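Whether sequence alone determines local backbone shape is best considered at the level of individual chains. For completeness, the protein is quoted in full, as a sequence line and a line of structure tokens:
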Amino acid sequence: MNEPLNYRGAVVAVVGPTAGGKSALAVALAKQFDGEIVSADSMQVYRGMPIATAQPTADERGGVPHHLIGFLDPDTPFSVAKYQALANQTIRDVLGRGKLPILVGGTGLYIDAVVNNTRFLPDAGTGHRAALQKEMEERGAAALLQTLAEIDPQTATKLHVSDEKRIIRALEVYYETGLTMTQQRAQSHLQSADFRFCLLGLTAQDRQVLYDRIDRRVDRMLADGLLDEARRFFAAGHVPTAKQAIGYKELKPYLDGAEPLESAVERLKRETRRYAKRQLTWFRRNPDIHWLYIDRDTPAQLLDAGGRIINRFLGDTL
């Protein structure tokens, strides 16, 4: 790698649940350490949906360069493997400019792919998928899941009979490579990453504090025009992407005239709270995260604590 010595291979990641204040802290840290933001959000990559995906506004960015936000058309296929390649290249570019890359987001799979240097299998191309799809139609998912159980019991026990795509993919991997998904996963993290990471996590000791922040964020999103954004998105025919984005699918019954706005908004808040809980569950598994508590410290105290952790990390790294 050819980046300057001042931030040689050093990357900071700010992770945690939605509405936890990741963006604000990351921008403050970027100003303190001369950094640039690299987004790690699976929905912020798409253009045309800034409110639903909580893309930081120009004011919120505070003049700090942000990368991997709003660069894809909503109908463009995207994957964690593609994200990893773009993020790694972006991190190298930022380091090459003598800046500190700050990876920010709540999509655990994206964060882990970069931090753990996950090795992904290439897309299939030998026809096994088409044959398996035909077999699925003829024999049913239960039969293929039983076949998978005989080949790769560890993976099979994690899948439900309704997970048809994953069943097919697991069998496809075996037929393509001769290795099971379990074996592939074991090998995917054997090579260390090119970078060294300092992981900061934002959470709340009192979960209700986070949930209240989520409710207030949803109210702000509605005030900022979320309903009109959702109408335009559905009208443009971006239904597959809209089905993934929290903020659109929950409002669809109201937009269709099937229920009152109050019911749709309450569902949106509830689903966002559930998503935050899943995010916390994901990140809590990582013992390397330094946790900061938004209900214990002020923003200034969080910045001070995060800065001290980063300074120690840089002292050990450089």
In short: The chain is about 55% helix and 10% strand. The two ends are 14 Å apart (CA to CA). The chain has two domains: 6-119+190-317, 128-188.
